[in-house]
Amino acid sequence: QELRPKSLDIKQEELGDMVEKEMASTSEAIEDAVRRIEEMMSQARNKSSGVKLEVNERILNSCTDLMKAIRLLVMTSTNLQKEIVESGRGAATTQEFYAKNSRWTEGLISASKAVGWGATQLVESADRVVLHTGKYEELIVCSHEIAASTAQLVAASKVKAEKSSRNLSRLQECSRNVNEMAANVVASTKSGQEQIEEKDTMDFSGMSLIKLKKEEMETQVKVLELEKRLEGERVRLGELRKQHYALAGAYDAVEDEEAKPAPAPRRGILKKPPLAQKP
Q: What is the value of pTM for the model shown?
């Protein structure tokens, strides 16, 4: 009993209810995420302008597209699960089917939770980015997490599904679409980050002559420091590669030596050498 996973403390007859509740909870989380993004869009239009507004709109639009793709994925996954239960339960009830396949059911619940959590985290990160209190890297990490949890949900559903199932092929198509939309979020976030950083670092219009000269000298110092650091890292990389090649070569040599067959014992009678073969 002590070695059993904690998730098995739940009664097996409750697993079926948990699957339905978790999928419904995930759908609600995604709907809420879409509403929050729409609110953020209106706030961004009221509080920002120019380059920042353009960047915020592009990021939030890509997040909206991703949420729509996730919503379709969850709906398709729900339909596939119903199909799996109907085709596999036989005379048993839905609850009995989930109880009989408890490990699969727990994997399904875990995957659904991961998708809903990823959607919520993405919206919170987008909110912080729009308000300039968060980091663009958070959005990128959340997008990767959503792609990973989507793959987990598809894998969990695929285990019990028929290969010829239309719902399965739709789910796989939805998964590819989610990955594509997640990649769009990453791309829009990176390009927006570059635009904002370039605008912030290249605006010298309000500086005096003395301030400009001071900034110029400080920048020269940074350039020299970075060049020196880059040269040191290149030397380090070269030494690491040398060591890697040396170790890899020694390892291959040891393997070749071990793989060589032991020499055959000499015999008194010399045998005719084998005929030469064509190369």
A: 0.63
